[in-house]
Amino acid sequence: MDALGLKIEMILAYLIGSTCPSCGRSSASICNSCTKKITDAYFRNQYKNQPEYHGTVLVAFEYNSAIRKMILNFKYRNQRSSLRFIGDALVQRVRVEQSRTLQKIDLVTWAPTTSKRIVERGYDHAELIAKYVAKQLSVPCRKVLVRLSDRPQTGKSRNARLVGPTFLARNLKAEHLLLVDDVVTTGATLNSASHALYQAGAGLVTCMAVASTVLWQSSTESYAPEKARK
Hints:
Blueprint: H1 3-16, H2 32-46, E1 57-62, H3 65-77, H4 83-98, E2 107-110, H5 115-121, H6 125-137, E3 145-147, H7 158-163, E4 167-169, E5 176-184, H8 188-199, E6 204-212, H9 225-228
Parallel strand pairs: 1-6, 2-5, 5-6
Antiparallel strand pairs: 3-4
């Protein structure tokens, strides 16, 4: 975008009250500064010495301050201007692995938040991300998990997070599911959700998160298929 186009976009964003979901400046979507902060880390890790996926979790971004603010504003303030940015990065991450060894995906689903949070917000951000990713991959997306515990992971200590929420899944015929979540910290949510999916008949569950707080590709291996099936 040239300087004139950028100036016009900023004026329009100011008039309609649109802000960058990461820094809060007037912007129709994610501002250039935040985009650079996020994508610099993304491409640095995405294509340089990134280990091949071996059944742990696929991650699009490292959990830096810019992506953290973006996720929080999407999650709690319904700022959906970041959905395309986040979703496209996840899709690209999947396609990179599909060019390697990742097998065909039959169904995309998500780890649902608590019913209380859905009522408060009016939406489940993980569902919105999963549906966007599924649409871009031309794969069906369906809710198959029910969250039995109604206490969110946010704000818990690490030890409390390790216990994880409890999920129940409906019977499945899909051989390979892509399970989407926003941020992976201990892996407890993805582990519990994966376990429920395997119990319901899934052949393989591939976990995916927007960002990881611990390591670039995965924080633990607790949601690897051989462990989640147990």
